[in-house]
């Protein structure tokens, strides 16, 4: 594990105990057993560290959900798989999820606010793709209303999972919400959220990265990883980006290799979209 990953993992433990405001850089460096100089080689400030943590956490959730939607082989189970993935991912990253929910009323710096809006839009776009895959033009007039209902289900029940100290059967919850979503899709007839309203309220999403930008991200990620299957996969994908020669199935397998690494979720998501996987 390199210094940057060490700082992120250890600081998350402290933030989970004391919140963002309750932890100083000195406490982080003491807990990590490093100097302040070593901290500032990885992060310019505590705010930059917090943004990096949220970036890493949200990207894992976005990638997990997007992967479940795009790789599902059965529309019959797609809603269940979608909800199960969303709640399982939330539960897996419960420490930082709880921090964000507790501190959502605190003033955010602009970078953090923009990040949250950005990831909200990515998740919303994945849900739109889910609804279109399931219902196509059949649900055209209710599509955006259903998208907001699904997003509301995830937010509401995620808080229930995180803050009630009782065992929860995620499989049962996912089946229940899949049924509710199907009922809404079949029987709702009065839309509130229209395409125009969706356009007015959507946040800004940066354009898809260029091939050159992706190559730079790959190079950076390769330099951060120690020798591993993920690093070798990244090196092959970097070559493929510049000089295409691999079969589609192999590219898909390489992307699947890197997405198993918790710090490669963003690059796997971007590459999956770039190669149309």
UniProtKB/TrEMBL annotation:
Domain HTH tetR-type stretches: 1-61
Database matches in Pfam families: TetR_N (PF00440)
Residue ranges for the DNA-binding region feature of this UniProt entry: 24-43
Matches recorded under SUPFAM superfamilies: Homeodomain-like
Domain of life: Bacteria
Cited InterPro entries: Homeodomain-like_sf, HTH-type_Tx_Regulator, HTH_TetR
Record protein name field: TetR family transcriptional regulator
Keywords from the UniProt entry: DNA-binding
GO molecular function: DNA binding
């Amino acid at each position: 594990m390199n210094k940057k990953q060490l700082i992120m993992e250890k600081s998350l433990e402290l933030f989970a105990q004391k919140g963002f405001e309750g932890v100083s850089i000195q406490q982080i460096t003491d807990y990590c057993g490093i100097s302040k100089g070593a901290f500032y080689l990885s992060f310019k400030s505590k705010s930059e560290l917090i943004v990096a943590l949220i970036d890493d956490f949200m990207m894992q959730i976005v990638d997990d959900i997007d992967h479940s939607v795009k790789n599902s082989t059965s529309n019959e189970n797609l809603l269940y798989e979608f909800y199960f993935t969303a709640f399982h991912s939330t539960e897996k990253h419960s420490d930082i999820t709880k921090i964000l929910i507790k501190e959502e009323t605190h003033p955010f710096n602009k970078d953090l606010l923009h990040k949250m809006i950005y990831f909200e839009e990515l998740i919303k776009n994945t849900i739109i793709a889910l609804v279109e895959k399931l219902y196509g033009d059949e649900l055209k007039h209710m599509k955006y209303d259903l998208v907001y209902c699904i997003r509301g289900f995830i937010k509401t029940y995620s808080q229930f999972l995180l803050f009630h100290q009782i065992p929860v059967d995620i499989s049962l919850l996912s089946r229940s919400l899949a049924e509710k979503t199907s009922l809404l899709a079949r029987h709702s007839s009065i839309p509130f959220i229209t395409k125009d309203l969706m356009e007015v309220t959507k946040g800004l999403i940066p354009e898809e990265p260029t091939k050159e930008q992706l190559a730079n991200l790959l190079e950076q990620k390769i330099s951060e990883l120690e020798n591993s299957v993920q690093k070798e996969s990244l090196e092959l994908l970097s070559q493929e980006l510049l000089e295409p020669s691999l079969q589609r199935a192999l590219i898909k397998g390489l992307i699947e290799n890197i997405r198993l690494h918790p710090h490669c979720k963003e690059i796997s998501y971007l590459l999956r979209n770039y190669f149309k996987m």
